[in-house]
Amino acid sequence: GGRQTVAPESPSSQSLPEWEKCIVLDVLNKTRWNKSQAAKILGTTRS
Prior knowledge:
Elements: H1 16-30, H2 35-42
Helix pairs in contact: 1-2
């Protein structure tokens, strides 16, 4: 299984932290708020 990457289409329109928040929320929604699964997809830890 490969890791999914989400690339913002127009990063200049928003600051990086806002994009990070959007990506994290999108992954959380896709995993039905399973934090462990979302962290695995994002390549980070749950904390």
